[in-house]
Amino acid sequence: MQYELTIQQTAKLNPLIHKHIRRLTATLGRLALVFTAVFSLASCATDVANRYYAGQSFPPKDPSEVVILRSAPNRPYEVIADFQSRGESEKSVRKKAAKIGADAVIISILGGYYNLSTQWASDDAHANTYTRICGTAIVYKQTKKP
């Protein structure tokens, strides 16, 4: 024969035990809520690293004026900052570069997801995903006219 007591039956048997059970249940509920909130915030956080190199500051620009490049340009330039982050887009990196007056930002996409059963990257549905984005903000050097 198996005995199971409900909370109401426990309260009748020993009010002190019932009081402690209620308090413990409330505390565990609050702890669960706190852990859920902390882990939710931690999973949404971006991992960001910004490093500025320029010895001078440049006036901010409109983000639409900042060119996004996939490789270094052929004309002379100076690196003014590097941005690295997880969970950001090219648009947000462009916006950061515009704030510091960059003419262009060289974007590198790193990491990504992939399907283990797909041999060729071009056939993989996850081929265009990334886990980290790096941007190098540059200003073009002024060419001197002879």
What does this structure look like?
- With 146 residues, the protein is α+β, with helices and mostly antiparallel strands.
- The protein has two domains: 7-44; 48-140, no CATH class.
- It has three helices and five strands.
- Strands 1-3-5-4-2 form a five-stranded mixed beta sheet, with helices on one face.
- α1 (7-13) packs across α2.
- The termini are far apart.
Low-confidence stretches: none
How many individual β-strands? 5
Question: Radius of gyration in whole Å, from Cα?
Answer: 28 Å
Structural class: alpha+beta
> What do the pLDDT scores average to?
78
Outline of the structure:
By secondary structure, the chain is α+β, with helices and mostly antiparallel strands. 32% of the residues lie in helices and 23% in strands.
Give the topology, please.
Blueprint: H1 7-13, H2 15-44, E1 48-52, E2 67-69, E3 77-85, H3 90-99, E4 104-110, E5 132-140
Parallel strand pairs: 2-4
Antiparallel strand pairs: 1-3, 3-5, 4-5
Name the descriptors:
146 residues; alpha+beta; 2 domains; 5-stranded mixed sheet; 3 helices; 5 strands; 32% helix; elongated
